[in-house]
Amino acid sequence: MTMPYREPLVALDPAPRTIPEPPRKGEPGGGPCRICAGTAVEPVWSDGLWTLHPPRQCSLRGTVWLASREHVDSFADLSSAALAAFGSIAARVERAVLSLGDIGRVHVLRWGDGGAHFHVWFMPRPLGMIEASGPYLPIWADALPNIDDAGLRAAAEQVAARLSADG
C-alpha cells in the first residue's frame, strides 16, 4: 500500500476547528438535497427503498453509489425496512460490481460530509493494484485520470443489469 505521490510528503497542521459546523445540503440552512430534488445523477436502478447512481468525475470503472429513498442522514435514522434490506442490497451491489471483471475487491464507503441524505459508495479496486488497498483506494482514485461520464454511466448500467437479473 502506497500513496500516489513521491516523497517527501509533509504533513500539514490541522486547521482550527469550525464549530458549529456549517450546514450540509439537505439540512436546515444548507442547500437543497440533490437526491430529493431530483438534481443528482439520474439513477440506473431503483426499488422501493434504494436508488443506484453512477458518479461524476471518477477514475474507477464500476464505482456506484447507493442512496436511500427516504431522506435520512445515517444508519441510525434508517427505517426498520431499510435497515433490514441494507445487508442484502449491499451484497447484491458488490456481486454486480465484481461481475464487471478485473476487480480485486469492492470497497464500501460512507462519509456523509457533503449531504444529509444517506448514501454509500461502492468503489472497485482494480485487480492487481495492491498499492491502492485499504484506505489508499480513494486517494488513488483522486490521482488517476477520470473516465468520461458516459463510460461511468455505461459501467453503472452493466451493474444495474446484473442487479436486476439477480433480483
Written description of the protein model:
The structure is a single chain. With 167 residues, the chain is α+β, with helices and mostly antiparallel strands. It has one domain (34-165): HIT family, subunit A. 28% of the residues lie in helices and 16% in strands. The chain contains four helices and five strands. It has helices spanning 34-37, 80-98, 137-143, 149-165; strands at residues 45-46, 50-53, 64-68, 103-109, 119-126. Strands 1-2-3-5-4 form a five-stranded antiparallel β-sheet. α2 packs across α4. The mean pLDDT is 96.
Write the layout of secondary structure elements.
Layout: H1 34-37, E1 45-46, E2 50-53, E3 64-68, H2 80-98, E4 103-109, E5 119-126, H3 137-143, H4 149-165
Antiparallel strand pairs: 1-2, 2-3, 3-5, 4-5
The gist of it:
The chain is 28% helix and 16% strand. It is α+β, with helices and mostly antiparallel strands and 167 residues long.
Give a quick set of tags describing it.
alpha+beta, HIT family, subunit A, 28% helix, single chain, 16% strand, 167 residues, globular
Alpha-carbon Rg, integer: 17 Å
Q: What's the domain count? A: 1
| SSE series | HEEEHEEHH
Number of strands: 5
Main sheet record: 5 strands, antiparallel
**Parts with pLDDT < 50 across at least 5 consecutive residues:** none
Could you report the average pLDDT, rounded to the nearest whole number?
Answer: 96
Strand content: 15-25%
The helix fraction, in percent, is 25-40%
CATH architecture tag: 2-Layer Sandwich
Secondary structure tally, helices: 4
Strand order of the largest sheet: 1-2-3-5-4
Q: Considering the protein shown, what is the CATH homologous superfamily? A: HIT-like
Per the CATH scheme, the topology name is: HIT family, subunit A
Indicate the CATH class. Answer: Alpha Beta
- Shape category: globular
Q: Name the structural class.
A: alpha+beta
The termini sit apart by: 36 Å
